Amino acid sequence: MISLHFLTFSTPPATLARLALRFRTTPAQFNSHFPFNRRFRALFTMASSLAPPPGQSAAVQPGRIRVLKEGSAKQMGPVVYWMFRDQRHRDNWALIHAVDQANKRNVPVAVAFNLFDQFLGAKARQLGFMLKGLRQVQVDIEEKLQIPFFLFRGEAEENVPKFLEECGASLLVTDFSPLREIRKCKEEILKRVSDSVTIHEVDAHNVVPLWVASEKLEYSARTIRTKITKRLPEYLIDFPVLLPPKAKWVAAKDQTAVDWDNIILEVLRKGAEVPEIEWCIPGEDAAMEVLMGSKDGFLTKRLKLYSSDRNNPLKPEGLSGLSPYLHFGQISAQRCALESHKVKLRSPQSVDAFLEELIVRRELADNYCYYQPHYDSLAGAWEWARKTLQDHATDKREHVYSCVPFLSVLCFMLSQLADFLILAIDTELNINRLEQLEKAKTSDPVSWLCPYHIATVSFLFVLLDFILICALKLQLWNASQLEMVVYGKMHGFMRQATSSFFIIL
């Protein structure tokens, strides 16, 4: 149960009613939050009277769904959920919507996943992790929800319309993705499917749906934070219980059989140049263990370290460790936020910092990719950044990697020179007595240290500082890249630090 203390007198009545219904709060619990507020009590009573019977799922918020195509079918066929970004059976708004629509139409529902031959350079490391997670998804969906899981290989533009036609589907539910490859794929599917098929897109990846949070490209976290925050009371709600659909899909067992072992071996063989990693176990169960496991869970054991250590590359235990699971949709960001709210009193600063990264920063990235068509090139940078690059495009530059030996030697020489200068100044000024320094009682003349000497020493220290920074950046760059190659993941702070490398040089 989430605290309802974020409700205010300015909250619209309709929102309060939906929230009371969504939280499934009992009258006693609700009155304990607002014992003297008749308005809240009345709204809760109204919402409770409209609540679905126990065990029946409530509909997904309309704002989370977009109708990409309105079909013309009069006869109701099956519902198909095309899963690709949110690869889980728990806490999945798209799957919840598909089952809800199937129950309303009294038709069966199926889940389909299309494995592309190639996707953005993914190799064994990425595809192996994804496929092993999907193998668990199939087992959970078929055993717990009695919903068939179909795996297709090849082009989704061909496989998805073909499957819809074969099964006579009337509704296709899809995940949302801001990437141009997926959006182009959907546009082609819209053209190829029958006019009788309706297509819904559900944002099950973001806490606040992208198109609800903002209708334009946002400049920074500062500009989108308020827009997201004011929508959280409506969208940061618990998930309804998902039960098996009323109507069962009639299909032979061999139609849904997937030879996972051979598919995974084939993918691992083709992408062997980027091998799998062992430290990160794929799947929904593993993701929940990382979030709140009893042994080393983020919220149960490591949360207090997050606010102080998350930007320290030497303390990787300060990170949540959830990014691989969030990326492949094996855990819901909304579930992570809900569970973190429950332990906020224990470590409020860490929870606030975690929610900032989990919700605001992640959704800002989706906003950028969706509203900026050139998100993966310099053409997508802001105008001031492009102008700066253009102004210095003709500047002479040395190859960074060819400077490493020279910088190392020069750093050593200048460090020795700095030590000598410090020793000379200390000796001349007789400031070797700590007590005199602390009490500002030194009386030795400093007439010998003329402005010329001061300027020379200052320049040398500035030069030393610059060269040390350059050398350090070179080493950090190499270390960060090696971490990515060997470990499969770069520390979050190092992603930001290395991005400024070329600017400094």
TrEMBL record:
Record InterPro entries: Crypto/Photolyase_FAD-like_sf, Crypto/Photolyase_N_sf, DNA_photolyase_N, Photolyase_Class-2, Rossmann-like_a/b/a_fold
Gene3D superfamilies, alphabetized: 1.25.40.80, DNA Cyclobutane Dipyrimidine Photolyase, subunit A, domain 3, HUPs
Domain Photolyase/cryptochrome alpha/beta: 77-210
Family matches, as PROSITE patterns: PHR_CRY_ALPHA_BETA
Highest taxon listed in the record's lineage: Eukaryota
SUPFAM superfamilies to which the protein is assigned, alphabetical: Cryptochrome/photolyase FAD-binding domain, Cryptochrome/photolyase, N-terminal domain
Biological process per Gene Ontology, one example term: photoreactive repair
GO molecular function: deoxyribodipyrimidine photo-lyase activity
PANTHER family attached to this UniProt entry: DEOXYRIBODIPYRIMIDINE PHOTO-LYASE (PTHR10211:SF0), DEOXYRIBODIPYRIMIDINE PHOTOLYASE (PTHR10211)
Protein name: Photolyase/cryptochrome alpha/beta domain-containing protein
